[in-house]
Amino acid sequence: MEPDFPAGTLPPASTPAVVIPSAGVPLPGVLHLPAGSGPHPAVVLLHGFPGNERNFDLAQHLRRAGFATLVFHYRGSWGADGSWSWQHVLDDSAAAVAWVREQAGDHRLDATRLAVVGHSLGGFAALTTAAADPAIPAVASITAFDVGWAGVASAQDGGLRAVFEEAFDGQLLPLRGTSGKALVDEMVAAGPKWRLADRATALADRAVLLVGATLDADAPAEQHHHPLVEAYGAIDRLEHCAFPTDHALSDHRLALGQVLVEFLGKHL
């Protein structure tokens, strides 16, 4: 619950630390609240694997535009209890959406104007979460890593499987309870069930933004972005673009922020 403010005074912008419960595990988060009495449209902003880029600049950009933005850590990452897995990322993303709805009154949020935005693995989680929750009106994916595509491809190509295992093993320092082999085993087992292209029907009545990067070495656009643009082509409110930059859009952050603000402003 926020503090009371003097009569005639509007609440200032603030950045409260919050805790999101997910399957009994407390997940640390930060809510970027705009100034004013609200209620403010809300964005759940999902980071990728393992979370080196947490997109706090985008959270600040969205707050300046009037969107309350939640950033949090998944189970088993960056000091959060529990163990890391792809499924736990999906479960925790859904829990964060539920938290926004449950806590809307305490934080001046409008839970009916709620978007999920994610980068990399967060893009996969954002699209998957929105597809499973018809009450989410808008979703944005930034250089999504399609775990379903990677699982199917790894099952068919042992060399690619080994590449993924080595890559994941090299990024485990901020994570707990997993390994490169465990992560590849999980995405291979899920395989087709997690392919993002198959979410097109579930997202047909939503506003969807797909942002790609033509110089992306971590989730190459040829495998992860362009097929989604094609698969989602029948979605009426689909918007897409691709910037000539790397996976994190490192030198296009202001442009990325503006694309997000314009998209969310039209659909929330």
List keywords for this structure.
268 residues, 8 strands, Rossmann fold, alpha/beta
Report on this structure.
The protein contains 9 helices and 8 strands. It has 268 residues and is of the alpha/beta class. It has one domain: Alpha/Beta hydrolase fold, catalytic domain (Rossmann fold). It has an 8-stranded mixed beta sheet, sandwiched between helices. Helix 1 links the parallel strand 3 and strand 4 (68-72). Helix 2 (86-103) crosses helix 3, helix 4 packs across helix 5 (158-169) and helix 4 (147-156) packs across helix 6 (180-190). The longest helix is centred in the middle third of the chain and has 18 residues, at 86-103. The mean pLDDT is 96.
What spatial form do the alpha-carbon principal axes imply? globular
Number of strands: 8
What would CATH call the class?
Alpha Beta
The major pleated sheet works out as:
8 strands, mixed
Strand order of the largest sheet: 1-2-4-3-5-6-7-8
| SSE pattern | EEEHEHEHEHHHEHHEH
List the helices and strands and how they pair.
Blueprint: E1 17-22, E2 25-32, E3 40-46, H1 56-64, E4 68-72, H2 86-103, E5 109-119, H3 121-132, E6 138-142, H4 147-156, H5 158-169, H6 180-190, E7 207-213, H7 221-224, H8 226-231, E8 237-243, H9 253-267
Parallel strand pairs: 3-4, 3-5, 5-6, 6-7, 7-8
Antiparallel strand pairs: 1-2, 2-4
